[in-house]
Amino acid sequence: MTKPDKQFENVARAIFFKLRQQFGFDQVEGSHHYAARDSGVKRQIDITAYLNDGGMVLIECKLHKERIDIGYVDAFHTVIHTDVGAEGGILVSSGGFTDGAVKSANAKRIGLATLNADATEDDFTLQIAEFILSGVSRDIGCRLILVDGIQ
Question: How many domains does the chain have?
Fold first, then answer.
């Protein structure tokens, strides 16, 4: 992982930690490896958020200039539900998402967030298109929220 990728991941973690109450997260932690339930192969997850009711939400960060495509969404869905068994997931991208990725994420109930590439913990723009936790009986929804420089 390059230094900018790691910085982007660290900033995203800090932002989700600051916004944990808005998302219903009890705790937010950094990189963690989970053994896949079917194969035992280790899956690295950038951020793990723990819900107030004990469930887990996996958060993956992509520092890309291009928009994230449907392949990332589909692969992440497998990691969330088949490999780890979490309640849901959020993909964070600096480059946004293709229309196909958005449609697939909506169908799979995966949250999408766009975070500016040069974000810092105190100076950032986080745009959340939709946040719905897959497999959770209650829905947490945020339609096109722009969070700018929350401290």
Answer: 1
pLDDT 10s digits, 29-59: 999 999 999 999 999 999 999 998 888 999 9
Q: Collapse the DSSP code of 142 into the 3-class scheme (helix H, G, I; strand E, B; otherwise coil) and give the result.
A: coil
Cα-based distances in Å from 19 to 2, 44, 49, 78:
26, 23, 11, 26
Full residue range of the structural domain in which residue 94 is found? 3-148
Q: What is the CATH number of the domain that holds 139?
A: 3.40.1350.10
Q: What is the C-alpha separation between 25 and 65, in angstroms, rounded? A: 29
pLDDT tens digits, residue range 63-106? 999 999 999 999 999 999 999 999 999 999 999 999 999 999 98
